[in-house]
């Protein structure tokens, strides 16, 4: 049976032709027949450049950008998508979006961490932005996996370096492997390549382990989680919790009123 997943990037995909094409190809390779992953990015003009990192290293600005993720999720459900994927390591507004929607909502970091826990006792994460290491540690605790988290560290290159390396990746792969070895020395038995562009670069070049330590394909993890959750929902399984402050679902009409008041209803409108 077919299903449609709304993929939501933290980048403006229209600004990133080579990466966008590579991401689409990877999705087509890992999704099962009948799964359609429809790629969406942030609204054009969201950032000053094609790189969001200058903003998302600040909790305050990431919170503001997270409103796009929330409004996109509402749009995904309205348009009949079967699942919604927050496909970025920081997972902005994941908890809040999950509370608003009836369709399954998956997070890139959460899926990667859960998969890592099935492959080894402790996992480590490599990131482009030093400040994100603190957020990753906090997210691991929020997902209930703080005791399995070995640490996060800078991978040794930047977002822009990855975009340039799709044609010649050998130098960056070598740097990634050296950074992974430092995490392994800290006790990591599984490596999560933090941001999605690095994930795509490694996957398309067959980098699946470093010195016997698995490297998680985080994108594949959330795709398979989304497919499974849709299958379970169609089979009659329960959805998410609907009690309490963090999980209670507000009135849909009021949600639409508030989105319209802040102008968020127009960001992802067709």
TrEMBL record:
Residues annotated as signal peptide: none
Pfam families given in the database record: Asp_Glu_race
UniProt cross-references to Gene3D superfamilies, sorted A to Z: 3.40.50.12500
Family according to the record: Belongs to the HyuE racemase family.
Protein name: Asp/Glu/hydantoin racemase
Organism per entry: Paraburkholderia unamae
Lineage start: Bacteria, Pseudomonadati, Pseudomonadota, Betaproteobacteria, Burkholderiales
């Amino acid at each position: 049976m077919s299903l449609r997943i709304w993929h939501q990037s933290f980048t403006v995909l229209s600004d990133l032709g080579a990466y966008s094409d590579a991401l689409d190809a990877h999705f087509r390779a890992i999704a099962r027949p009948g799964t359609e992953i429809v790629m969406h990015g942030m609204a054009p003009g969201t950032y000053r450049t094609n790189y969001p990192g200058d903003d998302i290293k600040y909790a305050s600005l990431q919170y503001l950008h997270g409103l796009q993720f929330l409004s996109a999720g509402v749009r995904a459900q309205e348009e009949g998508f079967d699942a919604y994927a927050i496909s970025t390591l920081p997972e902005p507004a994941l908890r809040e979006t999950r509370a608003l929607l009836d369709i399954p909502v998956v997070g890139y970091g959460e899926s990667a961490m859960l998969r890592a826990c099935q492959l080894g006792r402790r996992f480590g994460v490599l990131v482009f932005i030093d400040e994100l290491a603190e957020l990753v540690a906090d997210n691991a605790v929020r997902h209930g996996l703080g005791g399995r988290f070995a640490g996060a560290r800078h991978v040794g290159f930047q977002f822009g370096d990855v975009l340039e390396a799709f044609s010649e990746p050998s130098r960056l792969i070598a740097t990634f492997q050296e950074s992974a070895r430092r995490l392994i020395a800290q006790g990591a038995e599984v490596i999560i390549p933090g941001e999605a562009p690095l994930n795509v670069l490694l996957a398309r070049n067959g980098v699946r382990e470093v010195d016997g330590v698995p490297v998680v394909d985080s994108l594949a993890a959330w795709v398979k989680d989304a497919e499974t959750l849709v299958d379970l929902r169609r089979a009659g399984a329960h959805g998410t919790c609907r009690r309490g402050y963090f999980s209670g679902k507000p009135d849909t009409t009021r949600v639409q009123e508030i989105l319209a008041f802040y102008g968020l209803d127009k960001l992802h409108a067709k």
